[in-house]
Amino acid sequence: MAPLKWSPTALPALQGRTYVVTGGNTGIGYWTVYHLALRGATVYLTSRSETKGIQAVEEIKSAISRADEAFQPHLHILVMDLMSLASVYAAAKKVRSECSQLHGLVNSAGIMATPYLLSDDGYESQFQTNYLSHWLLTYHLLPLLETTAQMTPEGTVRIVNVSSMGHAATLKEGITFEDTGLKGKFTFRRYAQSKLGNILHARSLHERASLPNNDRKVWSISLHPGNVDTQLNVKTLGGSTLTPILRCLGTYISPEQGSYNSLWALAGTDLRVEHSGKYFVPVAVEKKPSKQALDERLATKLWEWTESEMERKGVLARI
């Protein structure tokens, strides 16, 4: 694979800024947290396991101290299980109670092409983990992001949804509202639907931020991180066979490189207002997503359906 033309060394100093990164204890989320903290940001990393979250924080601190013993990164663990809407609500409430400002959110955590499983909330695991829970977290953090945007130059506050080029593998309708679980379909169809949801979500956030008289300008971006060699590939059906082959072919990039597109979208200095609502591949390359991902009516329908579902589950009350 050709070398990436951007790296985190291009990031500005981030002292005084606060970010939330989901799945920050492993993979591209881990490296996203690392580079944000290295530039001086305060970062909340989410982890389903408190033990793994503590381990990740200690590893990041140790790595940073090896480069600069005097520098103390500002890291916080946010225990959150994306398979539990109540856990997501509680995590958002914690951030809202502890932070007076929030400059960005990276919805990075995810699972890929896993066997069919329902959460206790009644949703298919990939759809809830990759899309629904991130929608809910964003919904409850958005007021804090918006008030921060009022106090900072436009473009400072951003939301990044980590999607995938695999979003194009959905069924023809894109989102199957009458059966989002897709139990009888191939697992990658379920994954694709959840990742299409991430792109449509970012588009809807952009449209709402662009409404007339809205002075709370939060930019939103969706992206493909690259073909990243992470533990997701091992857990994917068929991944144990395909992964070694793809490694030999040089198809994969490292988890650290996989964080670059997210870091650029979150804090890169060359992002512009016209980039908000768009979809990017590594690094900083705008790409036209699938036909379904460009469907404004589908984006609106998905937002309204999701809002109704979350209201029905009792997790929509403002914090």
Automatic annotation (TrEMBL):
The lineage of its organism: Eukaryota, Fungi, Dikarya, Ascomycota, Pezizomycotina. The keyword Oxidoreductase applies. Keywords: NADP, Oxidoreductase. It holds the Pfam family adh_short. This is NAD(P)-binding protein. GO terms for molecular function: oxidoreductase activity. PANTHER family: RETINOL DEHYDROGENASE, WW DOMAIN-CONTAINING OXIDOREDUCTASE. It comes from Exophiala bonariae. SUPFAM superfamilies: NAD(P)-binding Rossmann-fold domains. Belongs to the short-chain dehydrogenases/reductases (SDR) family. InterPro entries: NAD(P)-bd_dom_sf (IPR036291), SDR_fam (IPR002347). Coiled coil: none annotated.
